[in-house]
Amino acid sequence: xxxxxxxxxxxxxxxxxxxxxxxxxxxxxxxxxxxxxxxxxxxxxxxxxxxxxxxxxxxxxxxxxxxxxxxxxxxxxxxxxxxxxxxxxxxxxxxxxxxxxxxxxxxxxxxxxxxxxxxxxxxxxxxxxxxxxxxxxxxxxxxxxxxxxxxxxxxxxxxxxxxxxxxxxxxxxxxxxxxxxxxxxxxxxxxxxxxxxxxxxxxxxxxxxxxxxxxxxxxxxxxxxxxxxxxxxxxxxxxxxxxxxxxxxxxxxxxxxxxxxxxxxxxxxxxxxxxxxxxxxxxxxxxxxxxxxxxxxxxxxxxxxxxxxxxxxxxxxxxxxxxxxxxxxxxxxxxxxxxxxxxxxxxxxxxxxxxxxx
Length: 358
Known about the structure:
Layout: H1 6-16, H2 23-28, E1 40-42, H3 49-56, H4 63-67, H5 71-75, E2 85-89, E3 94-98, E4 104-105, E5 111-112, H6 132-140, E6 144-145, H7 147-152, E7 155-158, E8 171-175, E9 183-194, E10 201-216, E11 225-232, E12 241-244, E13 263-269, E14 275-276, E15 281-284, E16 297-302, E17 306-308, E18 316-318, E19 322-332, E20 337-344, E21 348-349, E22 353-355
């Protein structure tokens, strides 16, 4: 276990203040504070970085610019905990983190921070970037499988006594390369995900079935591995595939713009529907290869379409694309990503655009 000191966090943010953007730079990037922004906000349990950002800023994704964070700090941010206070200095247009519970002020007005050891370990009680309960099942379960992954995954080839379905505690016999892993998730390939731009298959939605643990690895190329079903969400059987269990990431990434401009399309809405609203999950046709990383924020647009000019029947008019919401990317594959719908004024539809903030 590691110890955590509030002084470390506050000093880290103070050190970052040297790289704050100027007011002119804020205006250029549309990182504007709300006219009714509070002077301070005490962080409470249940807050998210997105919530806190939205109390002060017109656009919550401007958080890194306000703090002056560089790319490394965005990818590995310092923790913010309940009880700490975010202050808004209106004169400089800056936010600062300080005066956590237990701090005192010196005679010169400086803030003296009292280190607080947290035996629970760093990050366990920290404020998350977005509502963690909504996305937790999507962080570890193989809900999207690429074509390359599908081709190389181990598969269940036989069951004891010819049993059709397997449940918790049952044995399963598997063929395929395990690459040294011993814990696996079972999944069933679902419908292909079609890129709206290229019309090519970029992945498959996978139905998560449960987990299996290796009992004994096969000793020859044609000898099956012996597994036991540890958990069963749905019944599994011959033909179902396996992926090695990956560590569940601790998601506390700062909301930020993609490093390079991105223009993506909505590929699917989780659950097999065509429309979605706030706090629902969608997939987009851009991933790590396109500069998307965890925490990337994209703005949602609906194509304005083309209509007839009602004042001149011989011509047509292209209506402007309408911005109506924002997405927060929380899981990234090579060419596709999962994102949470953060805020919208309209329903999200398959085919809508998701672009870098403008």
